[in-house]
Write a structure and sequence with these properties.
By secondary structure, this protein is an alpha/beta fold. The protein contains 14 helices and twelve strands.
């Protein structure tokens, strides 16, 4: 992300395209983004999802999901197989052992189709932001292939808070950070190399976990008895930077962020996130408040883990709604539709990049919500209707983008 340019983008996972895969709908969406003056298409992880459809509990940190392919039966040549195996020697053998016959051909097809989409987008001035979940799935290819990098006595989660008295028990294997350090953090370097091969920028999910993560005894049924355990800090990112020539990263730093987490983000020169849904509550110094959003953040109305903005508005307290209207009017924003007030507030913030979930562009309610954190059922299934997105949406978003000095 350029340090000077102000830009804008839209969050929409590939599975939410009409048909839920690559091909004509993906290319049409790129064209729509261009018409809407959007420079970024933010997506969720493109690795294989788990049995509930979650791309954040993938059996591979490296493999592309064949379920996204436009042409899953396309011919693959021996030369393509050999070239892919040389380029991705670190992880492809392990993925073949885990996924079985045809796994290599599927990865060749994925890279071929994904590379073509990236080129198509780049020709139209659209870059793609991907997502790297911090954790991997228990029993997946990475866990099975590199058991020495993981603790066998701990799983991941987050501590009890005002919303969950038992905390959240995520159940991913916890990293053995000293073991990864002894290996020079190569697994992480290879992971970021792969991510940057596939994307123009990458969001690092749960960035605070690199400073300290909530480790829970594996036998426990809740996260209540966990405790904070130190992460690798800057040493991991220095090792990655020395091994991977191109890194463009965004730190997901939402939630309760301690000063050490903020210091690490700033020391690494990474932008953080600000989410307007969180900006009308809490203390005056809340970084999500419109008045507190800084240039070194990416401004969102909401994310894939939030309600849609219309859903948030319906659930908001009267004083929160009044605060939104007040903040909008302070900036000369008048709009009868609250989701467009929020979009324009994010657009007009000092943040170098503003991202809008497509559900908010369409003014959809919580029936279009992508994920409810802490639940495993009923998520990741929202899909755009084929004719729901049209020129009038592009024109309106383009106007808001231009008015905010973004392009």
């Amino acid at each position: 992300m350029s340090s000077g340019a102000r830009s804008a983008g839209v969050l929409l996972h590939v599975t939410s395209l009409p048909g839920g895969r690559l091909g004509d709908p993906a290319r049409a969406f790129v064209g729509w983004l261009r018409d809407a003056r959007q420079s970024w298409w933010q997506i969720l992880p493109v690795t294989p999802p788990d049995e509930h459809g979650s791309p954040y509990r993938s059996p591979s940190a490296f493999a592309g999901w064949p379920g996204l392919l436009e042409d899953p039966a396309a011919r693959v040549t021996g030369a393509e197989r050999d070239a892919f195996r040389r380029r991705h020697a670190y992880w492809i053998d392990g993925w073949e052992r885990f996924a079985g016959d045809g796994a290599l051909d599927d990865q060749v097809r994925f890279d071929r189709e994904w590379g073509a989409l990236r080129a198509y987008a780049a020709e139209r001035g659209v870059r793609i932001m991907g997502d790297v979940p911090i954790f991997v799935a228990w029993g997946g290819a990475d866990h099975a292939g590199h058991p020495r990098f993981f603790r066998d006595d701990l799983v991941t989660g987050c501590p009890p808070d005002a919303y969950t008295e038992d905390g959240q028990l995520w159940g991913n294997p916890a990293y053995d950070w000293p073991a990864l350090q002894r290996d020079g953090y190569r697994w992480w370097a290879e992971r970021f190399r792969r991510a940057m091969d596939l994307h123009d920028m990458v969001r690092i999910d749960h960035f605070r976990g690199f400073v300290a993560g909530w480790g829970v005894p594996r036998a426990d049924d809740t996260a209540r008895n966990g405790r904070w355990r130190r992460g690798p800090g800057r040493a991991l990112f220095d090792a990655v930077a020395s091994a991977v020539p191109r890194l463009d990263l965004l730190a997901e730093d939402l939630g309760v962020i301690t000063p050490p987490v903020d210091r690490l983000r700033r020391a690494l020169g990474l932008p953080g996130m600000a989410v307007l849904h969180f900006g009308f509550d809490g203390p005056p110094e809340n970084v999500n408040r419109p008045a507190n959003i800084t240039e070194d953040r990416v401004a969102y109305t909401g994310t894939h883990d939030n309600q849609t903005t219309l859903g948030w508005w319906h659930a908001a307290r009267p004083e929160q709604r009044a605060a939104v209207v007040y903040a909008a009017r302070e900036r000369g924003i008048e709009d009868a539709e609250p989701w467009w007030m929020m979009i324009r507030l994010a657009m007009q913030s000092p943040a170098r990049l503003a991202i809008t979930p497509l559900q908010d562009v369409l003014g959809l309610g919580d029936e279009a919500r992508m994920n409810h954190p802490g639940t495993s059922e009923g998520n990741w299934s929202w899909r755009l209707e084929p004719d729901a997105l049209g020129p009038r949406h592009a024109e309106r978003l383009a106007a808001a983008t231009a008015a905010a000095g973004r392009g």
